[in-house]
């Protein structure tokens, strides 16, 4: 199991990240100040640290200096949007940067991206008889290979990583097509349609009225 | 052209004209005098020769009644050889030459001007030399003769020429020396202007602290002083403006930062609620966070509004009994048992807007509570002083470090952020207090020791008294 440390002085934000990352299958610990964070890093090992810059006690940049030799990937979370602040964080060795206010889907995607870079994600995902090899870009259903286009593959991975979460059309579009959602959802609907057909998931990939789609898997 | 150059140029022009004119006049005067003297001598010699001729003619043995040309010639020859370089010519009444000395010019211009009463003279130039030619009439033995003399005055003319040459040299020398001197003087005179110009340029390039050096006591020195005074006033204003802009930028940055945290929470939890099926517990947690963070935003926006309104409003002051304020305070905090409150006050009344004053006192007490451990003492004191009525709010909390005391009245500033936020502070209370106190002609005074506690106080002046 992948362990993530969340350091943010705001309890509501800590809980928000904790809830979402736990739902995505990570094991989270959250602390609210720098000194606690340092003692926790010393006593336990983590795969990823989400670090707020403005912290009481010891500030995020100082903690970063301490973490760097340990080789633990770090994502900075801050309300400072200015370029110089972002650059400073990245210079210090942060792997990514998340600016408040952020979207939960974006948070999960960035966490995944950083973990993938460190080869810490499970590269094999599975839902019942469908097995997805993320690194190998192979999909099999009941042992038989399924041919998917790039976009279909992206959609599938996103659905599996967010099981039982209603994914909004705009966030699906922004994550997979990597562009601004213009309100035209036909492309997206078409791709979901084909994915359903190829995998035989007509009922699994449920349309959510006025929202988008949800991959329904009994827990 | 530079001012010092202009000054120099005009000085040289005026110097050259005056030197040239006076030199010419002087040399010419000397020449005229010398020439007049020479003419006088020439005329004198002419009349002496006339007399000598007549005498000689009368002494000739009389053979004839009429003087013969030959005799005339002889007499003239004697006269001519009587003085060195003397040149003579004798003509008869018709202008026919009887005797002509060496190099005597061959014209009769003078004859017409000469009569027995008046002698005539003229100045002639011959082969680079100058002469005075005189003409006089000799009546002797029934003959009328014209006697002409020539006197060499080349020297006088040469002297004039020499005078001009010398004078030209002197003038040139004077001009050169004058120019050098004047150059120095003009650049010394215009030095304050140059220094002032340099200061202006430096300031235009943004170096607002640069000042011109005062080097003279005259009007230019005064100008330099005035300029520097103006620059100081400008610098002060620019500084004030920059400070204002800086504080406004800080405010916006702090505001944006303070806004983002509750927004992130509200957006995140709302997103969870709409896209996920949550169990009862998580549902409540999310909804509660949305509610509390929304409340925080609300409190912040009201406080901000208060500050804006206070900044713009006209103050309606009235006499307020101090006991009324303290009763209100003790009433407000009587239900609060987490702290130990004590209110002590001298009787009296102050000039203030009662609601704003209550707001100030409540904010100060709230701040004191936030900085203190539960159960410690918060004391509010009112004391009648010589200059006015002073309010103290004392706590035994964590105190404020010296370097933070200045910033504490800035909007969104919090000494201990996590602690302050956990008690729903937005960092706006003291900013509001200081706005209100400014309207009342007062200001917040802070005395604090880290770890021991803080005393905030302000003085409301008695009517008619002005505090700084």
Task: Give a verbal description of the structure.
The complex is a heterodimer of chains A (219) and B (468). Chain A is an alpha/beta fold. Chain A folds into two domains: 3-117, Rossmann fold; 124-215, Winged helix-like DNA-binding domain superfamily/Winged helix DNA-binding domain (Arc Repressor Mutant, subunit A, Orthogonal Bundle). Chain A contains eight helices and twelve strands. A five-stranded parallel β-sheet of chain A has the order 2-1-3-4-5, with helices on both faces. Chain A starts with a strand and ends with a strand. The mean pLDDT of chain A is 85. The longest helix of chain B is centred in the first third of the chain and has 57 residues, at 3-59. Chain B is rod-shaped, with a radius of gyration of 58 Å. Chain B is an alpha+beta fold and 468 residues long. In chain B, the strands form three sheets. Chain B has a five-stranded antiparallel β-sheet with strand order 2-1-5-4-3, with helices on one face. In chain B, strands 7-9-10-12-11 form a five-stranded mixed β-sheet. Chain B has three domains: 3-174, Beta-Lactamase, CATH 3.30.450.20; 204-256; 313-461, Histidine kinase-like ATPase, C-terminal domain (Heat Shock Protein 90, 2-Layer Sandwich). The chains are: A alpha/beta (219), B alpha+beta (468). The A-B interface holds A 9-13, 15-16, 19-20, 23, 32-33, 54, 56, 79-81, 100-105, 164-168, 211 and B 256-257, 260-265, 267-269, 271-272, 274-277, 282, 285-286, 289, 292-293, 416-419, 421-422.
Q: What is the top-level CATH class of the largest domain in chain B?
A: Alpha Beta
Rg over alpha carbons of chain B: 58 Å
**Main beta-sheet strand count, sense and barrel state of chain A:** 5 strands, parallel
Query: Under CATH, the topology of the largest domain in chain B is which?
Result: Beta-Lactamase
The separation of the N and C termini of chain B measures 53 Å
Report the CATH superfamily of the largest domain in chain B. Answer: PAS domain
> Would you count the extended β strands of chain A for me?
12
Q: Which sheet architecture does the biggest sheet of chain B show?
A: 5 strands, antiparallel
Uncertain spans of chain A, ≥5 residues at pLDDT below 50? none
The CATH superfamily name of the largest domain in chain A is: Response regulator
What sequence of helices (H) and strands (E) makes up the elements of chain A?
EHEHEHEHEHEEEEHEHHEE
What share of the residues of chain B does DSSP label as strand, in percent?
A: 15-25%
Counted by DSSP, the helix tally of chain A is 8
Physical arrangement of strands within the biggest beta sheet of chain A: 2-1-3-4-5
